[in-house]
C-alpha cells in the first residue's frame, strides 16, 4: 500500500470498536485466532466501513442504502494518495493541499468515499457526479450530516447516461484531477455471474444457481454498463479531449490488463502528451490507475504555480 495510507497495518478491532461500538457485534476470531469480521456479511462490511471512516476521517454519520456499493476503504485511500503524488510531481515534489485543489469524482456513488478521504486527508474540494438519483440523494444527506464535509463536496446529477463530463463540468470550470472507478461488467448477467463466483470463493454461495450476494453491494449502474470497463474508459478518453485545457490530469481505475492496452492506444490517437500507470496493491490484490494529460511539462508547472498554494 501507499506509505501514507493509514490502513496498511492490520485492523485494530479493539480501537475500532471503541470508536464505533456497533462493530463489536460483528467481530469474530479468524482461523488464526485474531479478531476479524465475516467479510461475506454485508452488514459486517458496512459496520467496518462506518468505524474506519469515523476513526480515521472524522465522519460520524455514514451509511448507504440497502444494496448500494459499500467499497473497501483501504483501496479507495490508496487511489487518493497515489493521485496526490501525481499532482506533487508537477509541484516540486510537494503534495498540494487545501481547497485550492479541485477534484472531479466521476460516479461518486451513495458511499461518497473518495471525496470523504480526499477532503479529510488533504483538504481538497470535490465535485461528485452520479447518474443514480437515489445514490445522489443518499450522498447529499450524508454530506449534510457531517459538518467537516460542509462546503467541500458538490454533488451533481448526470441526466444523460452517454455523457461523462457534459452537463457536469460548468463553463470555465477547472479541475486539477479527475478520478473514476468505472463499472466493471458488460451486462447485468455478467455482473451476476461475477457475484456468484466471488460468493463461492468467500464460501457463501455453493452452486451456480445460488442467488448472487455482494458483500460490498452494488446496483446496476455501479457494476455494469454497455461495453463494460473498456467501453466506459474509451468514452471517457474521447470525451476528455475537449477539456484538455481545463483539466490537468484525468485518471481511472483499471482492473483488466487488456483495458490498459486499449487505453494506451486510444490516448496516443487522441494526443495525450503523457500517460502514467500507477500500480497499487492490497495483499494479493493488484490494481492500477491510468492517468493522462494533454498538457506538456511546462504547461503543468505553470498550472501548479497559478492554482496551488
From TrEMBL:
Gene3D superfamilies assigned to the protein according to its UniProt record, in alphabetical order: Vaccinia Virus protein VP39 (3.40.50.150)
Family per record: Belongs to the methyltransferase superfamily. METTL16/RlmF family.
EC primary class: transferase
Function: Specifically methylates the adenine in position 1618 of 23S rRNA.
Family matches, as HAMAP family: 23SrRNA_methyltr_F
Keywords for this protein: Cytoplasm, Methyltransferase, rRNA processing, S-adenosyl-L-methionine, Transferase
Subcellular location: Cytoplasm
SUPFAM superfamilies: S-adenosyl-L-methionine-dependent methyltransferases (SSF53335)
Domain of life: Bacteria
GO MF term set: 23S rRNA (adenine(1618)-N(6))-methyltransferase activity
The reaction(s) this protein catalyses: adenosine(1618) in 23S rRNA + S-adenosyl-L-methionine = N(6)-methyladenosine(1618) in 23S rRNA + S-adenosyl-L-homocysteine + H(+)
Record PROSITE patterns: N6_MTASE
Gene behind this protein: rlmF
The keyword Transport belongs to this UniProt entry's keyword annotation: no
Keyword Cytoplasm: yes
Coiled coil: none
Pfam families, per the entry: Methyltransf_10
Protein name: Ribosomal RNA large subunit methyltransferase F
Entry's EC annotation: 2.1.1.181
